[in-house]
């Protein structure tokens, strides 16, 4: 393993003058595709705790084709079903298309309960793995099945925590019970200049829970109020705007039947949304690698996303002098998972912690089985974020 560290002393992301943060909420088309991918992966592995039946597989390709709807105040209807194509690569003898379809349906019903089964068409595809891949990883599960990278960092900045907190608050059971007109398809974009933030929220409202345009505008104000409450409890200040493209005078407003834009034209694809920690933060190190649906058994992008984040979290917890840390792991196909091909760590500190970081890294890599087990226990609770 090539282990490289870089110690820097400079302003952290949160100390800088400018920051952009985005989160696509749990009902967003891309996040929903990610969630389906990950639910299939978790279901496969939870159904076989020893990973013996399907040692080589992945389900990181899910395509959602938007349907057609006629939303309306006090009503609305679905005109054309949503189509979902989940693709799973593995052994067709062990991976039944019926199971893949059921795992897909279960996840969609959990996230968008108003999108009933009769309005969804699922076309599962199970594709056989290559003879070489299946044979190699049946023999040795501790080999990287791809050459890929994983990225992690910490701590989250106040802006990042704020974006996460707002989306999770709006999609919480308490808010949903008080404000049933809020759909799960919520996207949040934050721009920060110094300590002032501008927060833009795209929220799919449910037309059947609203009387008219005036009621819709009141609902928008309530969503903005909920978000401002989270903002005011943070260390930042700024403004919140909800669905700024509405033209209320023409009744052109963002209402839906189900609470998600996939009911009418919006499409989604795995890997196009949030990164492994549930955010899109372009000022931090990032990778375009999709982690959702990758095999927890032997895909380096998946396993190293967990390992690199655990490294960052442990270093920050044990050594408060480290103000910020980022890590990149690279796995090389065929090599042992416990020995990443390259591990690069950059940390912001006046003191040298290279030896301590290496010790934490070796401890994590020495217990990858424990890392897998913890994620399997917690994955369904954390939805699809790998943080």
Keywords:
single chain, 387 residues, alpha/beta, GMP Synthetase, Chain A, domain 3, five-stranded mixed sheet, 9 helices, 32% helix, disordered C terminus
Shape annotation: flat
Largest sheet: 5 strands, mixed
Named at the architecture level, the CATH assignment of the domain at 18-24 and 160-269 is 2-Layer Sandwich
Radius of gyration, whole Å: 22 Å
Give the SSE string.
Answer: EEHEEEEHEEHEHHEEHEEEHEEHH
Q: What is the quaternary state of this protein?
A: single chain
Question: What is the number of beta strands?
Answer: 16
Q: In the CATH scheme, what's the topology name of the domain at 18-24 and 160-269?
A: GMP Synthetase, Chain A, domain 3
Could you give the distance between the termini?
A: 25 Å
Q: Which bin fits the share of residues in helices?
A: 25-40%
Q: For the record, what is the CATH homologous superfamily label of the domain at 18-24 and 160-269?
A: S-adenosylmethionine synthetase, N-terminal domain
Summarize the structure in short.
With 387 residues, this protein is α/β, with parallel strands linked by helices. The chain has a domain of 117 residues: S-adenosylmethionine synthetase, N-terminal domain (GMP Synthetase, Chain A, domain 3), CATH 3.30.300.340.
């Amino acid at each position: 393993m090539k282990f490289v560290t870089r110690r820097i002393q400079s302003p952290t992301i949160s100390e800088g003058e400018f920051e952009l943060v985005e989160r696509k909420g749990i009902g967003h088309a891309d996040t929903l595709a990610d969630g389906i991918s990950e639910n299939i992966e978790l279901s496969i592995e939870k159904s076989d705790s020893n990973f013996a039946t399907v040692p080589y597989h992945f389900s990181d390709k899910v395509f959602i084709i938007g349907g057609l709807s006629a939303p309306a105040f006090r009503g609305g209807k679905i005109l054309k079903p949503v189509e979902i194509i989940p693709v799973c690569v593995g052994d067709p003898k062990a991976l039944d298309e019926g199971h893949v379809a059921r795992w897909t349906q279960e996840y969609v019903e959990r996230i968008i309960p108003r999108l009933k089964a009769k309005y969804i068409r699922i076309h599962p595809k199970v594709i056989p793995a290559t003879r070489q891949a299946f044979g190699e990883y049946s023999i040795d599960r501790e080999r990287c099945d791809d050459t890929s990278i994983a990225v992690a960092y910490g701590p989250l900045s106040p802006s990042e925590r704020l974006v996460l907190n707002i989306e999770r608050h709006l999609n919480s059971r308490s808010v949903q019970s008080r404000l049933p007109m809020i759909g799960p398809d919520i996207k949040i974009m934050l721009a920060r200049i110094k300590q002032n933030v501008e927060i833009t929220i795209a929220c799919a409202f449910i037309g059947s829970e609203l009387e008219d345009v005036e009621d819709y505008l009141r609902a928008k104000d309530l969503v903005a109020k909920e978000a401002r409450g989270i903002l005011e409890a943070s260390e930042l200040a700024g403004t919140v705007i909800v669905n700024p493209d509405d033209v209320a005078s023409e009744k052109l407003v963002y209402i839906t039947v189900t609470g998600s834009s996939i009911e009418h034209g919006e499409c989604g694809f795995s890997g196009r949304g949030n990164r492994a920690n549930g955010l899109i933060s372009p000022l931090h190190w990032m990778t375009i690698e999709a982690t959702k649906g990758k095999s927890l058994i032997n895909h380096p992008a998946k396993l190293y996303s967990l390992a690199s984040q655990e490294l960052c979290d442990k270093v920050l917890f044990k050594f408060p002098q480290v103000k910020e840390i980022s890590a990149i792991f690279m796995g090389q196909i065929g090599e042992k998972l416990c020995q990443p091909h390259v591990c690069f760590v950059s940390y912001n500190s006046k003191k040298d912690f290279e030896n301590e970081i290496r010790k934490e890294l070796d401890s994590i890599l020495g217990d990858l089985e424990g890392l897998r087990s913890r994620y399997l226990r917690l994955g369904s609770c954390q939805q699809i974020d790998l943080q």
